[in-house]
Amino acid sequence: MVEAVLIDLFSLPANLQNNIQGLLRNTLETIEKCSSLPAPFVYVLCYQRQESERNGEQESLLPALGDFQSLKKRLEVVCSLTTTAALYTVKQRLDEKDLSIVKVILPASRKDLMKVYIDHLFTAVYQFEFEDLQVASDCENLQIAEHQNGGQTLTTQDVALIRSEIQMYLESLPSLNGELTILRSSLIPDNIFLHGFTTRTGGISYIPTLSSCNLFSSSKRRDPQVVVKENLRRLANAAGFNPETFHRVKIDHANAVCIMGKTEPDSYDGIVTNQKGVTIAAPGADCIPVLFADPVRKACGAAHSGWKGTLLGVSMATVNAMVSEYGCNVKDILVVLGPSVGPCCYKLPHESAKEFHRIDPKCVRLFHSANPHIDIRRATRILLESGGILPENIQDDSVTDQNQNITFCTACHPDKFYSHFRDGTNFGTQIGFISIKD
Fold first, then answer.
1. Which residues form a coiled coil (predicted)?
2. What is the DSSP string of 34-102?
């Protein structure tokens, strides 16, 4: 069932306004008659020819729009200088209303072009169907204009221009919810390593649970990869690393580790390197982003440690990779546990809690309840210390130094961090990142 209709008049010439009005009237009549909804949301895309006349297109279309009272509150004319800006505005409207199923009515020559824009600005959460804008046989001028717009085949250069347009538009957007903030540990020497943990401020993601510096995109979330890429660019600019040499773990909730410079596994939750100028990162949205640094051998690592990865020993697997690949001494390795869900908030079913109880009974609170509280940080620390990491070389602010303010509970601080546990399926993601300075 179509939830919204997008009518693309963006490419139609201004001097054919009367014919555009006729086209729009016919299209809206069809929507009113055929829609299974009493009044679907309708968005009309128009090219904004003069920036100083923002309402000009809407006013010129008023004769066509005036008779559609049932659509009045659900109909909006979106006038923009670029297709990117117009589509991004429509996306915001869809997201505000939690709409996903969209019919796009557009000139045939615009279809392939529009599909490229949609592929970049939307994710698989949205479903699009396309319908040709019907041009009446007596609209000779429109038929000529349609013909002059050419066929549907796009060149590589056309796609590159679209990508460039999207990038420029996203770069022009203001940061949301305050300045970009990076948390840093005093345990990791900043004369050797560049590192940090991100918070949720300073990006362009506008959906409440993703706002604003979301750093992960998936087919199940509404933030497209281009928005995440722009958030990363802003982070890289603030932190001082190159986003083109940035590598994030490919989460599997297990214990595989990627060695930078060797064949990359299909999925892994740990990553290590001794290459200068390469930034490695692990995401977290309750799971622990763990950073590792050896200032003696000048090597570093990052791991994503959720409850499954913790039980499978992903942190020690990352340490062992640094030892075996770079000759690190386990007693030289520094480990910082980033923002993650604390035992105050995190619960697991009793069967899963048993595994943490075996590591240390203190890892579980209310053990005999159906859903005990779990301390995945304590479990991580115990497993690291069992593997030879010195206790004083592990930073977990919940026990070592609460004034450091790095190991916050993500679920307890909605203003600072994303939380899957708190926010549900459309949650955002922060990261911990580290690199070796040149």
1. none
2. H-SSSS-EEEEEEE---TT-TTHHHHHHHHHHTT-GGGGGGEEEEEESSHHHHHHHHHHHHHHHT--EE
Residue 101: exposed, middle, or buried by beta-carbon count in 10 A (0-12, 13-18, 19+)? middle
The topology (CATH level 3) of 4-135+163-171 is Rossmann fold (3.40.50)
288-303 mean pLDDT: 98
- The 3-state DSSP class for residue 195 equals strand
Contacting residues for 243 by C-beta, under 8 A, at least 6 apart: 229, 232, 233, 235, 236
Same fold, 4-135+163-171 and 176-436: no
Share of the chain above pLDDT 70, in %: 87
Amino acid identity, position 190 = D
Bridge pairing between strands 41-47 and 75-80: parallel
Distance CA 325, CA 274 (A): 9
Q: What is the mean pLDDT of residues 384-412?
A: 88
Average pLDDT over residues 358-378: 94
Residue 404: the pLDDT is 65
Return the domain boundaries, the chain: 4-135+163-171, 176-436
For residue 46, what are its two tokens? 């128009």
pTM: 0.92
The Cα 103–Cα 6 span in angstroms is 6
Q: Which CATH architecture has domain 176-436?
A: 4-Layer Sandwich (3.60)
Kind of pairing between the strands at 270-273 and 257-259? parallel
At 420, phi and psi to the nearest 5? -65, -45
* Residue 106 parent element (H or E): strand 101-106
Residues 32 and 68 sit within 8 Å (Cβ to Cβ) = yes
Mean pLDDT of 67-78: 79
Using CA atoms, how far apart are residues 401 and 399, in angstroms rounded to an integer? 6
Check pLDDT > 70 for residue 144.
Answer: no
Q: How high is the pLDDT of residue 141?
A: 38
DSSP string, 395-435: E-TTTS-TTS--S-BTTT-TTT---HHHH-SS---EEEEEE
At 204 the three-state DSSP class reads coil
Say if residue 437's pLDDT is above 80: yes
Q: How confident is the model at residue 47 (pLDDT cuts 50, 70, 90)?
A: confident
pLDDT of 147: 40
Tokens of 415: 């203003």
Mean pLDDT rounded to a whole number for the chain? 89
Strands 288-294 and 299-305: antiparallel
